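Action item from last meeting closed. Structure (247 res):
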């Protein structure tokens, strides 16, 4: 979700400033497709934010109820439903009140399009920000609880069970580390928006990129099964390409 969110953010807010796509974004604006792009980005952003919370809650549940398999489907469906409900205020804001457009500027090196947001309902915008901040803080607290649970399990679990839970522990570590890097982006973004720190405004693209790719590399580092699957797929692809070349 973080990677999709990062790509959507890049398409909506970053690529427009490059001259080689100037005509493409002009065409998008002329055909009134900007609102659809902004809504799609908001949807991916909200899903990424809330899915991080429910992944952390699922890990806590697995540690505290000893793998209650019977409630997995109910938890999954509830998480999807709550994610959609919590995403509605932000999506409604961009559907009805907030308008995204591209304004043309000339900085001496040719025309460039810069994204511009026009907010007509400040109340809904502030409420959406408060909700996002609350979800982020709750997710951070849940991940902190996970760290405590992992340390406690390491002391209490006997050696035979330790191997069975090692995969679960690696996935928990992946969730915690990934969200830690997201919190760096979240704090930097808050400083840029509310404290008006210019450096944080420029650096938010770097933190967004790191937060987007961290989950993938954490899975590669901490989860041997995924690592083997990725490199096995790569090896198989290379072998097939070699055979086709020889043929």
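Sequence:
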């Amino acid at each position: 979700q973080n990677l999709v969110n990062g790509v959507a953010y890049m398409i909506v807010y970053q690529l427009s400033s490059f001259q080689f796509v100037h005509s493409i974004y002009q065409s998008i604006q002329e055909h009134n497709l900007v609102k659809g792009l902004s809504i799609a980005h908001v949807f991916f952003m909200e899903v990424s934010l809330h899915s991080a919370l429910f992944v952390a809650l699922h890990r806590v549940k697995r540690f505290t109820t000893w793998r209650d398999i019977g409630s997995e489907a109910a938890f999954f469906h509830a998480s999807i439903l709550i994610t959609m409900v919590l995403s509605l205020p932000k999506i409604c804001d961009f559907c009805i009140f907030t308008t995204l457009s591209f304004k043309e500027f000339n900085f001496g090196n040719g025309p460039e399009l810069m994204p511009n947001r026009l907010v007509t309902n400040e109340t809904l915008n502030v409420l959406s920000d408060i909700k996002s901040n609350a979800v982020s803080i709750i997710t951070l607290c849940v991940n902190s609880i996970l760290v405590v649970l992992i340390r406690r399990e390491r002391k209490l679990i006997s050696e035979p069970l330790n191997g069975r839970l090692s995969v679960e522990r690696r996935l928990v570590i992946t969730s915690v580390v990934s969200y830690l890097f997201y919190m760096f982006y979240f704090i930097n973004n808050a400083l840029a928006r509310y404290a008006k720190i210019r450096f944080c405004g420029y650096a938010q693209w770097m933190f967004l990129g790191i937060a987007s790719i961290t989950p993938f590399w954490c899975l590669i580092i901490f989860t041997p099964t995924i690592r083997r699957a990725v490199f096995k797929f790569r090896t198989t692809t290379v072998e097939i390409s070699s055979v086709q070349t020889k043929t």
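Note appended to the action item: Residues 237-247 have pLDDT under 50 and may be disordered.
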